[in-house]
Design brief:
Length: 95
């Protein structure tokens, strides 16, 4: 049976270089974990919202139509003074 001897040698990089390399690897791992977490969060939220998303879109569209009809009384190339503040006044009244 042949034995192989392994000789331990001193590292070729200095302590600051090794520390910098370690920190770079750790930062890369942190970035990958953050990306994976963000992707998982997006997946969970998309699963949760997918059944109600059409309702949300319909609500926003209907609200836009109602606000436009109520605030823009004379459609034209520019808004009048009262038409410019209409939406903020409209939403302020709903609080």
């Amino acid at each position: 049976m042949t034995r192989t001897l392994i000789f331990l040698t001193a590292p070729t990089a200095s302590l600051p270089e090794m520390t910098a390399k370690k920190e770079a690897v750790m930062n890369g791992v942190r970035s990958e974990i953050a990306l994976a977490s963000a992707q998982e969060l997006i997946n969970v939220w998309s699963l949760l919202l997918s059944p109600v998303l059409p309702l949300i879109v319909a609500f926003v569209q209907k609200t836009n139509e109602k606000c436009f009809a109520k605030c823009v009384t004379k459609p034209g190339t520019a808004l009048s003074g009262s038409e410019e503040v209409g939406p903020s006044t409209e939403f302020a009244g709903r609080r």
